[in-house]
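Ops channel
N.P.: pipeline sanity check, posting one input/output pair.
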């Protein structure tokens, strides 16, 4: 078995004395792991950093084996963000959450392109935190846990949306929420209109998406929690 593709490096861990196991997110193969011989060595380590764009060739005797990667760096991203603490935290969170969330070897081509666009925006778009928040909404949708923020679940109204049901993931207006408002999740305005977001809006948005990510991914016995990298990013983005 053999294939070639291009993808973003999500995670690296040492394997034996000199090898490394990497996880790469590609358009056609999804999140796919493999061994890089010499990947823990001095020559390869600088190139095997989360966020790096790689040309990869994978081969194995059988399809269900871990397999071996041959990699060629295309473009580094982390090195360009070292002076920007928030952007570097964003890159780390994107890679960690993608690695945690996606089933292995399942293609998500639309999410792949959205992820690359977000990673590139970290160094070029000042309002990238809003793009990150919308990327988490896209991730939920791709995983089958998408929210419906288009209209009120009770009245059908498209204006004045202020809350989200923690069970159904559907939006509700302030008027329709009434006495139930305390049991609903706040819906920040940055998720229903274009433009930048305040730190409070970003914090509320990440609490909203975090609720549904936790519910969708972390409720089964033995399930791993969401990555700590996401919590660190949420803390940074929620500060004034």
């Amino acid at each position: 078995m053999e294939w070639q593709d291009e993808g973003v490096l999500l995670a690296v861990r040492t394997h034996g004395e000199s090898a490394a196991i990497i996880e790469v997110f590609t358009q056609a193969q999804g999140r796919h792991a493999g061994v890089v011989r010499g990947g823990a060595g001095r020559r390869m380590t600088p190139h095997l950093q989360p966020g790096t764009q790689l040309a990869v060739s994978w081969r194995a005797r059988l399809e269900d084996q871990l397999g071996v990667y041959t990699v060629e760096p295309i473009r580094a991203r982390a090195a360009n963000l070292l002076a920007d603490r928030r952007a570097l935290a964003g890159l780390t969170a994107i890679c960690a959450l993608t690695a945690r969330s996606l089933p292995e070897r399942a293609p998500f081509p639309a999410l792949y392109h959205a992820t690359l666009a977000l990673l590139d925006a970290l160094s070029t778009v000042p309002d990238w935190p809003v793009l990150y928040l919308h990327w988490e909404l896209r991730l939920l949708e791709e995983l089958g846990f998408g929210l419906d923020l288009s209209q009120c679940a009770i009245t059908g109204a498209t204006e004045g949306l202020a809350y989200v049901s923690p069970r159904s993931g559907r939006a509700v207006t302030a008027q329709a929420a009434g006495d139930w408002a305390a049991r609903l999740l706040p819906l920040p305005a940055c998720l229903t209109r274009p433009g930048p977001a305040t730190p409070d809006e970003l914090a509320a948005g990440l609490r909203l998406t975090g609720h549904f990510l936790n519910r969708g991914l972390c409720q089964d016995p033995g399930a791993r929690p969401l990555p700590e990298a996401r919590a660190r990013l949420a803390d940074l983005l929620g500060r004034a």
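N.P.: looks fine end to end. The chain has a mean pLDDT of 96.
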